[in-house]
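Quick note —
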Amino acid sequence: MKKIVFIVLVLLAAGLIYWKKPVNKPITPPAKKISPFDHIVLIVMENKTYGEIVGNPQAPYINSLIKNGALAANYWATAHPSLPNYLDLTSGTHGDINSDCNPPSSGCHLAVRNIADELEKAGKSWKAYMENMPDNCGLTNTGLYADKHNPFIYYDNIRNNVTRCREHDLSLTQLENDLPIFSFISPNLCHDMHDCSVAAGDKWLSQFIPPILQSAAFTKEKSLLIITWDEGSDFDNHTPAIFIGNQAKKGYRSNIRYNHYSLLRTVEYLLNLNPLTGNDKNALIMFELLK
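Predicted structure written out below.
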């Protein structure tokens, strides 16, 4: 063994063989670019680890979606607590925000590009829907509505533009059959599993999702519904991400490691949008979960 090591060292020194240190390169899409999706719906649930959802008999509906869709089984949140994860999912950064602070208090807002900017730049429609938000563009916690689960009101160029904010940041009651190209949905503090059980959230999803999947957007157009969780626990940030709809593989399970930046990059790619930061630009696109 020592003789083999000696020979290798001699060859290296002589330049007859070489070792190239691997480098991290941005993930490039397939050579053949796909046509942009017609609709993407992203639902963000709350504070559950992978093991609390996948295979849990208290979540029969979610697990039926996993069976008929594609599961990212090695998916991870990017931060703690909730708010930084929501910001990472929609802008590729949470800046210096590392708490569940309330906008627009000092240090609790961001002057950064976000997915809404890129959507509008590309002429694509978007809406954010918040369950139990009493009025559009709600900046105050009210009952079961938590502003920390509404990332768009933390972006200065949305919150400070009253018309823009009120036209795009809506109560969930305003969700219509005619879906925008990109929909971001935050259930209330009970239905997202934050304050209530896994079973309560599963039941809500079982009532909320079928009409979306049965809509013309999902039966006649190129559409994708994604469910993920903002974070896991203080000790385990491993969460599920589930792709559902006519563009998702059926019964597929991926073991490649992904995170919220990967999900943002995937949405950007599927809608032909530019990356927002180096975090999402260099993240793995979740190609393998798609047909």
